[in-house]
């Protein structure tokens, strides 16, 4: 089949199934029409760097990223065994997250960075469409305390889904926010815990929370700490 015979709408749907490096390698500079589709008409770029080699990361970020920066809707960074030291390239290729003006989902996996969190608590407030935030098994060596981070997350106006797992590489007790989020509906705090007092404050300051997954600790009996992993499904009236 000659792909050039397909309607633009079909081609744009087809682009959804390609990784970005394969998409541009296959279609970019084939002809003017494909370039316009990729750079002007396609608005659903998902950048997942979890399994991207260093060489491919460089190609994507130097050749393609400048063309589509404001059309990226999801972005995932990883610093695991398959993509070591990827975090050191974040400030090089992404000097400002505010440039990702249509980003909806932002994820960090096993990222170790000394100053990334200081950037995030400022710059993610400049992402007007951000609805999903995941920070998983990350060790941020930061001067910013955990309470400030939580308050910053709860101040994101449109955040719906929040997944915090192994933040700072430890199992810290959750600290309830001092600010109210009218948007967060789903909270996953798996490698951590909270007691009942913190839970009550969390529910008060997250009035539209529909689902919570975390460890609940019961300190009601001296010298008998009870901890259980709990999924709470909340019905609001």
Automatic annotation (TrEMBL):
Report the leader peptide range.
none
Q: Which residues form the F-box domain?
A: 1-52
Q: InterPro entries, per this entry? A: F-box_dom, LRR_dom_sf
Name of protein: F-box domain-containing protein
Q: Which organism is it from?
A: Adineta steineri
Organism phylogeny = Eukaryota, Metazoa, Spiralia, Gnathifera, Rotifera
